[in-house]
Amino acid sequence: MKIIWAPWRKSYITNCHKQSECFFCDMIKDSEDQKNLILYRSTSVFVVLNKFPYTNGHLMIVPYDHVSNLSDLDSEKMLDLLSTTSKAIQWLSASMNPQGYNIGMNLGKIAGAGLENHIHMHVVPRWLGDLNFMTCISETRIISESLSENYQSILNVIKS
């Protein structure tokens, strides 16, 4: 048996059932953006770095509204969601120079939504070779940069 030590996951495991509403709603109410890895706030959505990323730079664009369906957002909020997604791609391109992106939503538990009652858009930067033998054979993912370094790198681009 292989053991992979991931002590940073303990806070997620021990706190995942203690959320008052949902962790996105808790983030919206909290003004400590750096602690919550929030990079940007627009009028109706915010951009947050994923704490448990697929790759470095894995962002989520989250509406302030606690809704489970896209149809629950009015056209102005829908436009803000898509416009902010476009900005996030520009920021990632400038800060990380990825070769491509996966962009999408998991709507509903059966579709893979970890939080099915608060929709959010995933933006995942991709590079040639980011899916290597470690993932394919060992079912292990290697993240090459710490969350705090990744956060600061993207934030520097947003502020410039």
Question: Can you describe this structure?
Answer:
The structure is a single chain. By secondary structure, the chain is α+β, with helices and mostly antiparallel strands. It has one domain: HIT family, subunit A, CATH 3.30.428.10. The chain is 36% helix and 16% strand. It contains 6 helices and 5 strands; from the N terminus they run αααβββαββαα. Strands 1-2-3-5-4 form a 5-stranded antiparallel beta sheet, with helices on both faces. A hairpin with a 3-residue loop joins β1 (38-41) and β2 (45-49). The longest helix has 22 residues, at 75-96. The radius of gyration is 16 Å and the shape is globular.
Which helices and strands, and how do they pair?
Layout: H1 10-15, H2 23-29, H3 33-36, E1 38-41, E2 45-49, E3 59-63, H4 75-96, E4 100-104, E5 121-126, H5 133-138, H6 147-159
Antiparallel strand pairs: 1-2, 2-3, 3-5, 4-5
Helix pairs in contact: 4-6
